[in-house]
Amino acid sequence: xxxxxxxxxxxxxxxxxxxxxxxxxxxxxxxxxxxxxxxxxxxxxxxxxxxxxxxxxxxxxxxxxxxxxxxxxxxxxxxxxxxxxxxxxxxxxxxxxxxxxxxxxxxxxxxxxxxxxxxxxxxxxxxxxxxxxxxxxxxxxxxxxxxxxxxxxxxxxxxxxxxxxxxxxxxxxxxxxxxxxxxxxxxxxxxxxxxxxxxxxxxxxxxxxxxxxxxxxxxxxxxxxxxxxxxxxxxxxxxxxxxxxxxxxxxxxxxxxxxxxxxxxxxxxxxxxxxxxxxxxxxxxxxxxxxxxxxxxxxxxxxxxxxxxxxxxxxxxxxxxxxxxxxxxxxxxxxxxxxxxxxxxxxxxxxxxxxxxxxxxxxxxxxxxxxxxxxxxxxxxxxxxxxxxxxxxxxx
Length: 396
Known about the structure:
By secondary structure, the protein is an all-alpha fold. The protein folds into three domains: 77-117 and 127-168, no CATH class; 171-246; 249-378, no CATH class. It has 14 helices and two strands. It has a two-stranded antiparallel sheet. Keywords: Membrane, Transmembrane, Transmembrane helix. This is Transmembrane protein 135 N-terminal domain-containing protein. The chain crosses the membrane at residues 219-241, 367-388.
């Protein structure tokens, strides 16, 4: 323990008074007899112990008073151990650091290669996090509530206001990405909440019986991921062929590569994918037949009716049954054969990418297990040999 000196001077250490009393005792021992010196030193020692006890008692009392005051003070927020200002500041600094670090770690290599230096750090993420926490604390203190039911409204208002920070991001595609991510998270939360409410309702209606709605709930819980994947893929393929402007460029290029268009058309892959939607819409509006006449090859039909650029990509003497098949697989007039070939190409592409990693991990794990078993067997053999050798020697 240390105290401040008079006049706001430097702090005085706790050992100062003990050293002072020791020096005083030494001075007094020079002036008095041995008997008087012992009496004075005993009184000084007693005074020193009493002073130490009083200091300890005062410290305990002050500590108890501070603890009691903190316990009696009501806390409306749930960030225990931190004030509202500390919580908001901590959230701002943490989110800013994460966003700043991730952004510059991702952008440093393209910036060095292209010569473009990103000078303006994004403020979206840190404003959203710190704004949400600040508004949440303000709502709690304004409404003077701390129960969970009233905190739902506080969280809803804080989230709505914090979402306005999305307007500070000038990148349209990044705003859309963040919006889609938050929207999917909201759908996931709403789905989980609805399933929970449905389960509670079923349990209340027939607690000890298993009926059709219980089987339906189990089916949805087990296969909901597959159903969502099917719906999402159907929507993505529709957007890829008919509304490609709604897809990000990187994902559109990804679908062109793995959908076989780049392999069949090369640089004409994007116009060919766009021609699919245009051709289907034209056939529906004109109510034209969707098949290619038997008298014409696919190349001749596309040169005359669809697009000369795409028609030149189709091999001569091929006859596709349907018009759309000529765009989707121009080098093969068999739909099943083209899909098998596409599947094999994508399988080999994935195999080259994932097989070395998975095989190396599996081999390393197997080798490690084998080596461990060999060491254990060797240790067991050595132990048995040592025991059999020492046993007859001990009786010699």
